[in-house]
Specification:
By secondary structure, the protein is of the alpha/beta class. The chain folds into two domains: 138 residues, 3-Layer(aba) Sandwich (Rossmann fold), CATH 3.40.50; 158 residues, Rossmann fold (3-Layer(aba) Sandwich), CATH 3.40.50.2300. The chain has eleven helices and 13 strands. Strands 2-1-3-4-5-12-11 form a seven-stranded mixed sheet, sandwiched between helices. Strands 7-6-8-9 form a four-stranded parallel sheet. Strands 10-13 form a two-stranded antiparallel ribbon. Strand 3, helix 4 and strand 4 form a beta-alpha-beta unit. Bound molecules: beta-D-glucopyranose. The site of beta-D-glucopyranose (BGC) has 12 residues, from loops. Beta-D-glucopyranose binds next to loops.
């Protein structure tokens, strides 16, 4: 009898489907993407799942093809970090037909019937940037420099900024002299934009609300080419090595730190549960993607400047002390 029970347990264990998660990485548009897939994989592997990765390097069509390949490879969960937010509905439907749970990672997939969204409170990022800036300069000329509109987060960041600036603009204290979504997240686009704006408009700019550290870095490079010193509040996001160093050098004012380790780990833990067919209890927010409210697991973001850099990104182990020069 015992032997028979043992055999039954053994057979069930052996015939159980292996846990497989597909992860489609859309681009490498900032430092974080070179670490995040690895953190996700380490966590998921430790929990007994296999992760299949595909990298699209910013090519939206290629990403779709790669996702189709993942759908056909026996996965239970599909994670998509999209390089473009649009045109996902038919692919998500295809995944659902194959019984796969579909999750948007960091960036939303618009108007598609996805199951979950794992990310940060992205509108708060823009709010934190603008609050930091108005605190230092409640009056003046502001530039809003956003990422590409193909990334839905770009719109959220700028919306958050504008919500904070609205009363100041209405009072006439703040003048938005340029509001621009760049074509890409590349610093070179920010460089070109700021260079041409400053050359064509001989006005004093007080703040550049750059959406992330890449765009802040490009703006700083352009300003350094044109001016002897920079007297401006410049914001950023991601707590990248370059962004944090610019803060320590006194060129960038702040960055918004997103713990990508917490996001990647929690996303991995939750995905493994979903792959096992278990219930999850951490997707407690609801975020609209245009046609549907998506249950979302959202993490908080932290304002970092020269005063708390050590207590945040360093203490957290996100960046190591020796990656930065604290006495430039
Ligand atoms: C992310 C940012 C990142 C940017 C460029 C956005 O979707 O939210 O953290 O800096 O993409 O990769």
């Amino acid at each position: 009898m015992i032997l028979m029970l043992f055999m039954i347990v053994l057979v069930t264990a052996c015939t159980k489907e292996p846990l497989k998660i597909g992860f489609s990485v859309g681009d490498f548009s900032s430092d974080r993407w070179s670490q995040e897939p690895q953190i996700f994989q380490d966590e998921a592997t430790a929990l007994g799942a296999e992760v299949l990765f595909e990298y699209a390097y910013g090519d939206a069509n290629q990403q779709v093809e790669q996702v189709k390949k993942l759908i056909a490879s026996g996965i239970q969960v599909l994670i998509i970090f999209p390089t473009n937010a649009d045109n996902w509905a038919p692919i998500v439907e295809e995944a659902h037909k194959a019984g796969i749970t579909v999750i948007a990672y960091e960036r939303m997939l618009k108007n598609a019937d996805i199951d979950y969204y794992f990310s940060f409170f992205n509108k708060d990022v823009g709010k934190q940037q603008a609050e930091y800036a108005v605190n230092l300069r409640p009056k003046g000329n502001y530039i809003l420099l956003g990422g590409p509109t193909s990334d839905y987060n770009s719109l959220l960041f700028m919306q958050g900024q504008k919500d904070v600036l609205k009363p100041y603009v209405e009072k006439g204290d703040i003048n938005i002299v340029l509001e621009k979504h760049l074509a890409t997240w590349n610093s070179i686009d920010a460089y070109n934009e700021i260079q041409s704006f400053m050359e064509n408009n001989k006005i004093k700019v007080d703040d550049i609300l750059a959406a992330n550290d890449e765009l802040a870095g490009g703006s700083i490079m352009a300003l350094e080419m044109l001016q002897d010193s920079i007297d401006m509040v410049i914001t950023g996001q991601d707590a990248s090595v370059g962004g944090c160093q610019n803060i320590l050098n006194g060129k960038q004012s702040m960055t918004v730190y997103k713990s990508i380790r917490n996001l990647a780990r929690e996303a991995a833990q939750t995905s493994v549960k979903l792959a096992r067919g278990e219930n999850i209890d951490n997707a407690t927010n609801m975020v609209s993607n245009g046609t549907k409210d998506i249950p979302a697991m959202l993490l908080k973001t932290v304002v970092v400047d020269k005063n708390n850099l050590r207590e945040t990104v360093i203490a957290d182990g996100f960046l190591k002390e020796d990656q930065l020069n604290f006495n430039p």
